[in-house]
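User: Quick sanity check before I run a bigger batch. Here is a single chain. Can you write out its predicted 3D structure?
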Amino acid sequence: MKEAYVNTVDGWSLAVRHYEPRERSQPHPVVLCHGFAASGRSFELGQTTMVNFLVERGYDVFVGDLRGHGTSTHNRGVRDWAFSEYVEIDAPLLVSHACEVTGSKRAHWIGHSMGGIIGLGLTIDEPEVKLASLTTVGSSLDYSASGSDWSLFHPLFPLIKRLPSVPVGGLARLESRLLPTLRTPFSTLNVWPGNSDHELWQNVCREVFSDTSTGVIAQLTSGLEPGGLRSARDPSRRYMDAAKVIKVPTMIVTGDRDKQCPPLAARRTFDAVGTPDKELVVFGRGRGDRYHYGHFDLVIGKHATTEVFPALERWMSTHPSPGERALS
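Assistant: Done. Predicted structure follows.
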């Protein structure tokens, strides 16, 4: 693994870890983007990780930490930012870095939770972005009236927005001390009983989550409104309305018991995406999988390696850019 830091125009140094295959057999690298208040460690913890799975199949994998997360830093210690800055600054930089290092013209994007929303926003704002494919995992542009448990926290959002930061890291560390004795709302929101290893989930709670900017939650809460997520630059603009411009082949993935992104929310985004080259997959017993899938189970679930990861890799392997095929 090689770690590098790429600098944004507004003073952030984003940590990016590059995992190289023993033999590169795929034409495009993969950028893995984490979710809200998380870090790239989401994809790196455990015995059988998404990183290892893809590297073993010949992909160069780049795991980034967005601004304010993981080991990314700011030269003046800034602690306030918005979701739009992920889309407009961080995401294009991560894609450009992966392409520059590998010499590829395009990259695949796999985003978990908010990381998938960032990928959707990127392809909307930059229709000609250098992506060979987009995969969203537990992500939607419109969570309204979908059964998402985020709606239960909606009454607290005005209070949360007054805080200096959203204390997700503190809640996650508390969770790690309570497990496995007590199952908390934080666990219920993220993992499904039976499909998550307690020890691994404890490690994720300890090492992945951190407090984050209230500016991010301020924009993301608009995703609970009818019509979905608003642009921070132009609040009258809804990403759902603009999703028809997406040209990149898009795979929308969620779990049948995902409390954050229920199948209805994923389906709504799938229908809005403009490209005809798209696929919707709901993992769980309804499609013959061994267990139900919650939000984080799609990344760290007991059987993600044999059920989820192969489907994601199949999508990427069948979507190289025109004229670029798997390397022999």
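The first helix runs from residue 50 to 55.

User: Great, the batch can go ahead then.
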